[in-house]
């Protein structure tokens, strides 16, 4: 965990941000060394895509929690999912979101963003199919990410 240190242990990607400026003239800055405390606990975990995939796979497969806690984890409530990635039909459990990707196509997961980095991880209900994406910038086409996710999880 980084605490208040702006340094990342090697190896790592570089991260770039426009620092909330919009438009074609927005200056792009290298924000790789940046204190993640701006995101409170959301910026306090450093991991690899492979580790995140393994964790989510084992979590959804039921390998990490006793059955009663697993049931509580997946007991969801409505969430306003159209803010950021997701849909208005999304549901939220205990730290995990049930994303409606298309009609009859759902995936479990979570996403997060700090300046210069956006991560999104999703898995099938049984944890056998997992996908994690990391974008090393804080701009981009959400539509393209959504298409990649739908192509991965939704049958044509």
SSE layout and pairings?
Elements: E1 16-17, E2 29-30, H1 49-61, H2 67-74, E3 77-78, E4 91-92, E5 97-102, E6 105-114, E7 117-123, E8 130-135, H3 142-153
Antiparallel strand pairs: 1-2, 3-4, 4-5, 5-6, 6-7, 7-8
Characterization of the model:
The chain has a 6-stranded antiparallel beta sheet with strand order 3-4-5-6-7-8. The chain starts with 15 loop residues before the first strand and ends with a helix. The chain is an alpha+beta fold and 156 residues long. The relative contact order is 0.17. The chain has a domain at 48-153. The protein has 3 helices and 8 strands. The protein has helices at 49-61, 67-74, 142-153, and strands spanning 16-17, 29-30, 77-78, 91-92, 97-102, 105-114, 117-123, 130-135. Keywords: Hydrolase. Residues 8-137 form the Beta-lactamase-related domain.
Structure classification: alpha+beta
Uncertain segments = none
User: Strand order across the biggest sheet?
Assistant: 3-4-5-6-7-8
Characterize the largest beta sheet: strand count, sense, and whether it forms a barrel: 6 strands, antiparallel
Silhouette? globular
The helix tally amounts to: 3
Outline of this structure?
This is Serine hydrolase. Keywords: Hydrolase. It is built from 3 helices and 8 strands.
Features:
3 helices; alpha+beta; 6-stranded antiparallel sheet; two-stranded antiparallel sheet; 8 strands; 156 residues
């Amino acid at each position: 965990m980084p605490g208040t240190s702006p340094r990342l242990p090697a190896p790592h990607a570089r991260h770039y941000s426009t620092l909330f400026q919009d438009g074609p003239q927005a200056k792009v800055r290298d924000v790789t060394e940046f204190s993640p405390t701006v995101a409170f606990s959301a910026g306090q975990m450093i991991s690899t895509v492979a580790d995140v995939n393994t964790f989510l796979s084992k979590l959804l497969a039921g390998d990490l929690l006793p059955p009663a806690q697993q049931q509580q984890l997946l007991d969801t409530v409505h969430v306003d999912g159209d803010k950021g990635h997701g849909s208005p039909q999304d549901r939220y459990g205990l730290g995990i979101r049930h994303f409606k990707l298309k009609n009859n196509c759902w995936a479990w997961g979570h996403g997060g963003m700090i300046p210069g980095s956006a991560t999104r991880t999703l898995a099938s209900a049984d944890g056998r199919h997992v996908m994690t994406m990391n974008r090393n910038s804080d701009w981009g086409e959400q539509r393209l990410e959504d298409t990649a996710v739908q192509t991965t999880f939704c049958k044509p």
